[in-house]
Amino acid sequence: MIGLIILNILAFTFETVDSVALNNRTYFNDFESFSAIIFTIEYGLRLWTCDLIQPKFRAPVLGRLKFAMTPMAIVDFISILPYWLFFFFHDLVFIKWIHFLRLARLLKIGRYSESMRTLGHVLQAKGGDLLTALFMVFLLLVISSSAIYYTERVAQPDIFSSIPASMWWSVITLTSVGYGDAYPVTPLGRLIGGMIAVLGLGLVALPTGILASGYTDEIRKKRMQQRSNCPHCGADLNSKPASHSVSLPEHHEASNGRS
């Protein structure tokens, strides 16, 4: 299934190359139909058998509605939505604009990739810290845009015509991109620009540090969990039942004796 997902992303990408798309339109359409049918069957089977996965989905109707509202089920639905909308309403102009929803199929890899699931756990665990960091970045963006607007609006009224227009300069300065299409020319504006650039180096990198720390914690947690499980039967050696209250060597001997 991962191979099919990757092929779909490649097909979506190369469809935008005119020379490739014009000569292979039929192949692209057939492959899209095949993929959409496979993904639709997968979605239907997951929806139908969700009551076998977790007890909270056992209700015939409400259980399936709850399952349909889970993040991965929503991803599955969005990934097949463009095809079926175009299949039934191909004359509608707006349908062409939602083809980019096919990129949601890339998120389906998270179901089959342990690394992607780990990243999802990290985002869930560090969600509050990430929101705080992003709020600080947004706050600095507003402050820097306001400062450069009041400093440069007289010297460059076309570029720094308003605070929202000045936000473009703030973004490229905070991220150290520097396209060169907007820059301060007054001495005070250059001073502000230098200060914002230095602050941006640390503040924009803050979410990256949070993710790296969370990923390290998640990996360490998984390793600790693996070490606490018996390599023979998989039981938790930290639990208190009598069958696992003995030492690790004794537990191994007991397991070997039973085998």
Strand content: under 5%
- Largest sheet descriptor: none
Count of alpha/pi helices: 12
CATH topology of the largest domain, by name, is Helix Hairpins
Number of structural domains: 2
Radius of gyration: 27 Å
DSSP summary, beta strand count: 0
What structural class do you assign from the helix and strand content?
A: mainly alpha
CATH architecture of the largest domain: Orthogonal Bundle
Mean pLDDT: 81
- Give the topology string: H per helix, E per strand: HHHHHHHHHHHH
Helix content: 55-70%
Span from first to last CA? 37 Å
Q: Tell me, what's the shape?
A: extended
Query: Which CATH C-level class of the largest domain is it?
Result: Mainly Alpha
Q: Which residue ranges are poorly predicted, with pLDDT under 50 across at least 5 consecutive positions?
A: 242-246
Question: Can you give a write-up of this model?
Answer:
The protein is mostly helical and 259 residues long. The protein has two domains: 2-112, Four Helix Bundle (Hemerythrin (Met), subunit A) (Up-down Bundle); 113-227, Helix Hairpins (Orthogonal Bundle), CATH 1.10.287.70. Helix content is 66%, strand content 0%. It contains twelve helices and no strands. Helix 1 (2-14) packs antiparallel against helix 3, helix 3 packs across helix 5 and helix 7 crosses helix 11. The chain is extended, with a radius of gyration of 27 Å. Residues 242-246 have low confidence and may be disordered.
